[in-house]
Design a protein that fits this description.
The longest helix has 24 residues. The N terminus is likely disordered. Strand 10 and strand 11 form a beta hairpin. The chain has a 7-stranded mixed sheet, with helices on one face. It has a 4-stranded mixed sheet with strand order 7-8-10-11. By secondary structure, the chain is of the alpha/beta class. One of its GO terms (cellular component) is Golgi membrane. InterPro entries: TBL, TBL_C, TBL_N.
Length: about 375
């Protein structure tokens, strides 16, 4: 057989090398943009980009848009998880159906990997993960704890508390999954004459618990819309001035601005990942009975619920920040899940039908799969 001259072999090899190099450069170019704009430049920004890029989905993966897919391999943990509060354990409270536990969120242009407890624990080894916010964020914390606790021996896990915070400790991983109660982020204090005063420009009493945390996820929206007898405050205070009347969305914007300033000034993006989960949908029409006996989500294509006003305010606040914060927008996906609420199957059924919180296992598990995806 005739031998092929070396110079004739070299040309196709060089061409193949060029194709591989071009493919790698193309993948780098298609990597996702930062969730919000950044300022500054130079070596520090390069370090921040390197730290953040590993946790960000690609540009064509919008976690907010997709559909719920029925998956019989779900839920990812049992309703008997000992860390579930009685209020959200819908089957324990008599709910007869269980299909609401078996829906998996699938974004349109990508797939969220199934939650892997052991891998998640490895990724947070020697780290602190903290969820900050209201009772719906607390339910997400319960969900996350239940997603991981079954793979940890009984004598190697424990729960501790410190003021408004609770922490689940995975001792062998030197890791903690924590919750910090701060539904308004800024400070709400009861002062003279038992008046509840919301300090729109004060946050340190809450924020002192967030220091030194490696992964922070925030939510704050629902409490800002409570009015009348459901309002959480009597008066506002800003720059030492007391006043009563203020548009709720203006107050929300002021509170978020205070939070954003604290994050910009006190956190290092090379050290801490920050995410903000938007408000989930409430199905409270007709005095909270809109979700009663609903057993299936809305799955038809083209359904586009109106974006809540809080989401618009939140986006504007995040876009003004220098610190890179990833927005986890769950507004549309949760609007489809009228079937996922406790309704009357709650430990507080005497208060009526609960169409704001979520059954566990259920919708918050998908938010935690998003969190897992962002840490890959």
């Amino acid at each position: 057989m005739a031998t092929i001259p070396r110079h004739k072999l070299l040309t196709p090899l060089l061409f193949l090398l060029f194709i591989c190099l071009f493919f790698n450069l193309s993948l780098s170019f298609l990597d996702g943009e930062p969730p919000v704009k950044r300022s500054g430049g130079g070596e520090k920004e390069d370090e921040v980009t390197k730290f953040q890029s590993l946790e960000r989905p690609s540009r064509d993966c919008d976690l907010a848009l997709g559909e719920w897919v029925f998956d019989r391999s779900y839920p990812l943990y049992e309703e008997s998880c000992p860390f579930l509060s009685s209020q959200l354990s819908c089957r324990r409270n008599g709910r007869p159906d269980s299909d609401y536990e078996k829906w998996r969120w699938k974004p349109r242009r990508c797939s969220i990997p199934r939650f892997n407890a052991l891998d998640f624990l490895e990724r947070i080894r020697m780290k602190r993960v903290m969820l900050v916010g209201d009772s719906i964020m607390r339910s997400q914390w319960e969900s996350l704890v239940c997603l991981v606790e079954a793979v940890i021996p009984v004598d190697r896990k424990l729960v501790s508390s410190n003021g408004p915070c609770a922490a689940f400790h995975a001792l062998d991983y030197e890791a903690s999954i924590e919750f910090s109660w701060a539904p308004l982020l800024v400070e709400l204090r009861e002062e003279g004459e038992k008046k509840r005063i919301l300090h729109l420009d004060s946050i340190e009493e809450n924020a002192k618990y967030w220091r030194g945390v490696d992964v922070l996820m925030f939510d704050s929206a629902h409490w800002w819309t409570h009015t009348g007898k459901w309002s959480s405050w009597d008066l506002f205070m800003e720059e030492g001035r007391l006043f009563k009347d203020l548009n709720p969305m203006v107050a929300y914007e002021k509170g978020l601005t205070t939070w954003a300033k604290w994050v910009n000034m006190n956190l290092d993006p090379r050290r801490t990942r920050v995410m903000f989960r938007s408000a989930s949908a409430r199905h409270n029409r007709e005095n909270g009975w809109q979700c009663y006996k609903v057993e299936e989500p809305l799955v038809y294509l083209g359904y586009s619920p109106q974006a809540p006003g809080q989401l618009t305010v939140l986006r504007e606040a995040l876009n003004k920040m220098s610190f890179p914060v990833y927005l986890i927008d769950v507004a549309k996906m949760s609007a489809l899940r009228r079937d996922g609420h406790p309704s009357v199957y709650t430990s507080r059924a005497e208060l009526g039908s609960d169409c704001s919180h979520w059954c566990l296992p259920g919708v918050p598990d998908s938010w935690n799969e998003m969190l897992y995806f962002l840490l890959l």
